[in-house]
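User: Can you predict the 3D structure for this chain?
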Amino acid sequence: MTQKVRNVPRLDEDQAISLLKSRGISPTRQRVQVAAVLLARPQHLSAEQLLRLVNEREELVSKATVYNTLGLFARKGLVREVLVDRARVFYDSNAGEHHHIYDLDEGTLTDLDCGEIAVDGVPRLPSGVELDGVDIIVRIRRKKTRS
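Assistant: Here is the predicted structure, written as structure tokens:
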């Protein structure tokens, strides 16, 4: 059998366990595997991309487990869920305040510092609610050439 070899950055097991515990997440084997890949560096991955990367080197983790783990990580503030359209969700390992640029041609998401966009006020909010955040996604595509 040919082993798949990739140079995918990964946290070591102790680092992944420590991060999970710091957010009150029980470090199961599968959660540690997902965290080791997703949290190794600032990146934006879909659940399918993450599933592929986790399963390239480790024991198989199911698709349902990856989705459930990502939902838990998002609820606990370990990652940000970025919905770029109805069919595309990315999980952002940078949970800090920032915005994004989405390249429609490449299907990639890039961080955009909050200081690069000015938001001047927010709409009046209904009574009984408070602002939780403002997420901006700047969508780009290549210019169409005229013939």
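The beta strands are 44-45, 80-85, 88-92, 99-103, 108-112, 137-140. The chain has two domains: 13-85, 95-140.
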